[in-house]
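Quick start: what a row looks like.
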Amino acid sequence: VRRQREEEDRMMAKTKAEAELVQKGRLAVAEQAKSDWLGRECFERERALAATRQREDEARLLAESEASDKLVDKERLSAGSAAKQAESQKVQEENTERERALATRTQKEEVARVLADAMEEAAEMVRLEKERIDQERALVNMLLEAARAKTDAIQKERLAMEDLST
C-alpha cells in the first residue's frame, strides 16, 4: 500500500510538473507574439515616417522649382511693363498657392491612409493574438481538467486500496 501511495504521489507530482511546463510554454509564446507585434508596429511607423519625409522632399523640390520659375518670369517681365509684371506675379502666386494646397491635402490624405492601414493591421493582429490566446487557454484548461480527472482517479484508487486494507 505504501509503495502504491508513493507511486501515486510521484504521478501527481509529474502531472503538476507537466501543467507547469505547459503554463510556462504559453507565457513564452505570448511574450514572443508581443515582441513580434511591437517589431511590426515599429517597422510600420518607420515606413510611414520615411514616406512623409519623401513627400516633404518632393514638396521642397517643387517649391524650389517654382522659385526658379518665378525668377525666370521676373527677368522676362522686367523687360515688359510694370502692370504686366504685377498681373503675372499675382497669377503665379495664385497658382503656387493652389499647388501648395493640393500638395498639403494630398500629403494629409496619404498620412491618414497610412495611419488607417496601420490601425487596421494592428487591430487584426490583436484579434488574431486574442484568438490564439483563447485557443491556448482552452488547451490548458483541457489539460488541467485531464490532470484533475487523473488525480481524482488516483485518489479513488487510493481510497479503494485503503478500504481493502482495512
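That is the whole record. Helices lie at 2-79, 82-165. The first helix runs from residue 2 to 79.
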